[in-house]
Each structure stands twice: as C-alpha cells, then as structure tokens.
Amino acid sequence: MDIYLPIAQMPVDPFVLLAMGGLVGFLSGLLGIGGGFLMTPLLIFIGIPPAVSVATQSNQLVAASVSGVIAHWRRRNVDFKLGTVMLAGGAVGSAIGVAVFAQLKALGQIDLVISLTYVLFLGMVATLMMIDNFRMLVLHRNVVTRRKLHEHTALHRLPLRMRFPRSRLYISALLPLGIGFVGGLLVAIMGIGGGFILVPAMIYLLGMPVGLVAGTSLFQIIFTTGITTLLQAVTTHAVDVVLAAMLIVGGVIGAQIGTRLSHLMKPEYARLAHALIVLVVAVKLTFDLFARPENLFSVIQLGAQ
Amino acid sequence: MTRRLAFLLAMLALAGPARAQNLTADLSSHIIGITTGFVGANLTLFGTVDKPGDVVVIVRGPPADMMVRKKQKVLGMWINGSSALFHDAPSFYSTASSKPLGELGSPDILTRHMIGLDNLKLQTAEPVAEPRLSEFRAALVRSQQELDLYRAAPVPVTFLGEHLFRADMAFPANVPTGTYSVQIVLLQGGEVIGAQTSSLIVSRIGFSNGVFSVAHHHALLYGLGALVFAVAAGWAASLVFRRG
After folding, report:
1. CA-to-CA separations, A25 to A129, A258, B210, in angstroms, rounded
2. What are residue B24's DSSP bridge partners?
3. Could you tell me if A91 and A265 are in contact, meaning their C-beta atoms sit under 8 angstroms apart?
4. For the segment A113-153, what is each residue's pLDDT rounded down to a tens digit?
5. What is the residue-wise DSSP string for chain A?
6. B155-160 and B93-97 as β-strands: parallel, antiparallel, unpaired?
7. Is the peptide bond between B131 and the residue preceding it cis, with omega within 30 degrees of 0?
8. What ipTM score was computed for the predicted complex, to two decimals?
9. Rg (Cα) of chain B, in Å, rounded?
C-alpha cells in the first residue's frame, strides 16, 4: 500500500519511510549523532527530489532534537546561555544558507555544492575522529578532550568576552556565534542538524565539558532547524509534512531503542562506529563526484506548479 | 499561460464534435483525482467510426518548462555544464493505436499530429545548434521515459465489430496535474479523415490537495504548523518512552 506525498508529488511505501526513519533514529540514539547526514542521501536515493529531501529533513530534525534535548535537560546537561549565543549565530547562518540554496538551485549547481560540502566536512571530521580513536584503541592513550580549566587559546581572547558559568568558560562570544553561524549554514544547505561539525568544534575550539556538548548542540539545533523549516516553507514550498510525519514516527521509536541500548556499547567503540559511518559516506560521495556518471544528463521541471 | 491554454483546449473540445465527421469518441471520465491513496488511474476511451480506418489516440499532459543539463569534467569532477531549456514540453505523453505508429501514414502526417515520441514537438527557449540539440532532446525523452511519463509504444485500440472501438489508457501514480489534451484521429489509407480533441483534468483532491494548497497559499501558516507538529511529536515521544 503506497501513500501519495502531496509536496514531493509521488507515491511511496510508508513502511520504507518508517524503516528508514527507524534505522537512522536507532543509529543516532545508539551513537549520539543527529543522523541528518545519513537521512538526506537516503531520501534522495529513494527518489524524493533533493529540494524536498533537504527541506523536509530540517522539519524532522526539529522533532528529533526536541526529544533529545528533553532527555539531556533531565540530566542537566544543557548550557542554555552558551546555546542561546550559538543560536543567534545559527539564525543568521540559516537565513543566508536558505538564500544561497535558492541561488545555487537556479544556477543548477546545488547538487555539486551539497556534495562538496559533504565531502569536505565529513572527510575532515572523519579524519579527526579516526586519529582520536586510533590513539585511544591502539595506543591506549587517553584523549585529552578538555584542557585545563584556565588554559586559553588565542581564539578565546577575541573581544566580547562572556562568562558561561554552566560550562565554566570565560571566552569571547564571537566563538560560539561563529560556530553557530557555520552550523546554521550547514542546516540550510545540507539539510542536516550539523551536530557532527558542532560537537567537535565545541570540544576542540571552545573547550566545553564533554558532558554538556551533546545537549547544548541539540538545543541550538532545535532552533536552526526550526528557522530553516519556516524559511524553506515560505521560499521553496518544499516541506512535505506527510513525509516528515512518517520519518518522525520511525525516527523517535528508533532513537529511543538506540538510546536504551547505548549503554551496552563502550563509548570508544560508539565513536569508532560513528567515525566509520561518516568516513563511508564521505568516500562514497567523493567517488560519485569523480567517477564518470552513468547518465551525463539531468532533467528538471522548472516551476512545477 | 495555463489559463489561456485551458481556454484553448475548452474551445477545441467544444469545436471537436462539429469537425468530427466520421468519428465520435469519449473518455469514461474527464477527471482524474489524486487522493492520498492514489496509485495511478485507468481510463477507457470509447468511440465509433462511420468509415473503416485506423484509429490513433494521442494523450499529452500540460506543457512544462524542462531544464536539461549535461555534466562535464572539471578538475576531475563531473559537474553540470551546458544546458538547454525546453519550453512548453508536454509533461506527459502516451498513445493508443490500432496499428504500429510508423505504419499509420506519411512522416508528414505523423509530425503534424505528433504521433510517436520522435515526432513530439520539443522546442528550446533559445536556439541550440545540432548535434547538441538532438543530444539534449534525446536526454529529455529518455528521462521522461524512465519516469514512465513518456511512453514510446502505443496501447492497442481494439475494434468491437466494424464501427465501435475502445482503448484502455493507463496513467501512472506520478502523473503530473493539470489539463491534458486527448486527440483522437481516424486515418484511412494514410489520410486523416476525422479528428476529435477532448480534454482531461488531473488534479489533487481531498487531503493531499488541502496540504498542497495550504503549503503554497498559506506558506507561513503551513511552516508554523509543521514546526508545532514536530515539537509536539518530539515532546510526546520523550514522555511516552519515559513512562514505558
């Protein structure tokens, strides 16, 4: 039994969507990742138009990050002040991102930019994570994820210094603003939450306590994905609520199961698995970019009514 | 544009029976409604002919602008390079015929009535030189065929006795919405001796139409609704699973 997606304008098997949402949700619960970078390519793979995939994915991420933040908030693992500063940058980033997205789409280069950003960011993050994991698992050396409390890099001494008591940081507000900005840009262009880039940036650049990172980045992601959903709904009309609803239902169930099972997995193995998944996606996208495509032509209908 | 076209088609439909010497035909329905459970539709075309001959039915979907892009190698990467914009290309094309399309008449006749994919009128917005034009044209046709929106082979038109004929036309689930033209042509010895055009409307109805029109006409409201739904779903999920 297929159901017809009103915005994507195509029929799909709802069980395929529930299963996809469930699988990505499961992985995100298990490994503590957003999973947006997996979902968007999967949606495009089953034939959903890229514009609808990216726009709808941002709506689905709102639900995923709300339920994630509530779980972290109960354990007091959210730095609301830092998160708020990040989301100020994120709002600007996603507004610019949506405008850039529309422009690139008109030029016919949006696919290239999506692929390049994926390859660049995923490749970078995968490499960093693999190095970390290699040190931990093979050399049995503990990774220093947080420097001493009062050690500051040159970046921290930029102007506009602010106190973030929850994270015990006294750093320039420009740093979280900038990280939030990049996150917002990525949400709009790649249709992802951006957790995979925010999390390492918050650990390595801000020097935040590791325990607070996931909850705080999710807190910020609620707003950037929310703003992006609104902007996409107004400018591209590409948010498909029926598609989002099915991904959300599958996703929340999968995420809860994943979270329950996550304590069975050692954190270093979870991070290794995360790094491997990121690496596989990055390698696949790089390959697609350089391999001669089977069909050199692409056809799109302009101004579909 | 769409309105002008719809008007034109309506005029044609009205004018149809008057011109249709030797041929009278009608569809089992003039509306295809796309609901949430839509899996495609089948329509039957019935008609009679006064004189024996070959009957061909040409169904064309509402015109659309199609952008065709070709990838080229730049710095080792395959990226979109040259492009051609086809103006008012039919978004859907299928035929029914009582005999193979190529045997119906002279190339001239086939071209005039756009019988067969090779005779489809596909014009670019700006002039494109050969052989690039043929290459892009072929790419457009191939892509639409892969989506099952252009069909090369006709479905049969079967005669029930000497005068009465029928054809079963199938429309896939991804059929574009809009006003379709259904042209029925009667040929005898390669000459057109009767023709009739009627229109068919494909539109979303019910829930899927509601969602689509809210998304387009009340975009902000739609976006807010999508957000509220997502927040509520995320919150509900954490409540349900906390207790469970």
Report:
1. 21, 7, 29
2. B48
3. no
4. 877 887 888 888 778 777 877 777 776 655 454 444 445 66
5. --EEETTTTEEE-HHHHHHHHHHHHHHHHHHT---HHHHHHHHHHTT--HHHHHHHHHHHHHHHHHHHHHHHHHTT---HHHHHHHHHHHHHHHHHHHHHHHHHHHHT-HHHHHHHHHHHHHHHHHHHHHHHHHHHHTS------S--TT---GGGGSSSEEEETTTTEEEETHHHHHHHHHHHHHHHHH-S--HHHHHHHIIIII---HHHHHHHHHHHHHHHHHHHHHHHHHHT----HHHHHHHHHHHHHHHHHHHHHGGGS-HHHHHHHHHHHHHHHHHHHHHHHHSPPS--EEEEEET--
6. parallel
7. yes
8. 0.82
9. 23
A239–B234 C-beta distance less than 8 A? no
Place of tokens 């024996």: B52
The residue of chain B with its CA nearest to that of A61 is B230
pLDDT at position B244 is 47
At residue B131, the 3 state secondary structure works out as: coil
Pairing between strand A169-172 and A161-164?
antiparallel
Q: What is the mean pLDDT of residues B125-143?
A: 89
* Least confident among A221-225, B3-7, B106-110, B151-155: B3-7
Beta-carbon neighbour count of residue B10 at 10 Å? 12
Q: Please give the pLDDT value at position A149.
A: 47
The structure's pTM equals: 0.76
Distance, CA of B213 to CA of A113 (rounded, Å): 31
State mean pLDDT over A176-188.
88
Q: In chain A, what residues touch B173 (CB-CB under 8 Å)?
A: 2, 4, 10-11
B215 contacts on A by Cβ (under 8 Å): 6-7, 233, 237, 239, 241
Pick from B64, B83, B233: CB nearest A301: B64
For residue B55, list its beta bridge partners: B186
**Kind plus residue range of the DSSP H or E element containing B188:** strand B178-188
Are the Cβ atoms of A302 and B67 closer than 8 angstroms? yes
Mean pLDDT (whole number) for A240-257: 89
Least confident of A68-72, A224-228, B7-11: B7-11
Percent of chain B with pLDDT over 70: 90
pLDDT above 60: residue B17: no
> In the predicted model, what is the mean pLDDT of residues B4-28?
62
